[in-house]
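Ticket #4471: structure output looks truncated?

Reporter: J.K.
Steps to reproduce: submitted the chain below (266 residues) through the standard prediction queue, then opened the result file.
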Amino acid sequence: MAGADTPGDDRGAEASRLWANLRDVRSRIEAAARSAGRDPAELTLVAVSKTWPAADVVALHALGVTHFAENREQEAAPKVAEVQARLGSTTGEGRPGTERPIWHYVGQLQRNKANAVARWADWVQCVDRPELVTSLARAAAAAGRELTVCLQVSLDTPAAGLRRVGDSGARGRGGAAPADIPRLADLVAAAGGLRLAGVMAVAPRGEPPRPAFARLREVAESLRTIYPPAHVISAGMSGDLEAAVAEGATHLRIGTALFGERLPVP
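Returned output as attached by the reporter:
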């Protein structure tokens, strides 16, 4: 019927929406960088695609986004496979100038999921305890891959309950206490199959984000005195990316501002 909506029309509208959102996010990042006296080229946008379909990942990839993040292995593995199949059929796998998506795992990771995550993730940003270092190193070796890892730092204040390494029952947003980061870094550096990239954190709930990101910056600077190549500071999400950029973030994990409000998880 003339004028009726079609699936193709729906995808075109979705692609237009994603493009508009991406344009706005890039404008925010550039403005934040300029305000902080930084080069926007220093910043990497990581699109947090959790709960969103492979078609949206493919659409953003076509617009120049190369880094994507997931936080549930059972959702991520089939999505990664579908994205690769779609890109292989539409762009030609391995075609010169075509950069495949780089996948990040950003959720709390259980040791028994390490083998599965190591098969598809390029980065694991949530390393927060020695046991996880051991499991990921074994998983990387078994998969014949090298995983880039960030150490997740707890930015919760003492009143909120700092999480120590191995303390799975602590409150807050997760991560290792700042004092435990050097020991974790030593374990990663000594492990085969892992490359230490830097640190990651989530701003605490109920607190202004910038002071928390300032604490993360101090941890990152201290880590770089021991491991100079560990320059990554993964911080900042849709609501606080400006504060993160002001405090030296290099990787911004953006979900809602790109995709919209999160879809319900089945």
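Triage note (M.O.): checked the attachment and the full token line is present. Confidence is low (pLDDT under 50) at residues 1-7, 91-97, 159-171.
Status: closed, working as intended.
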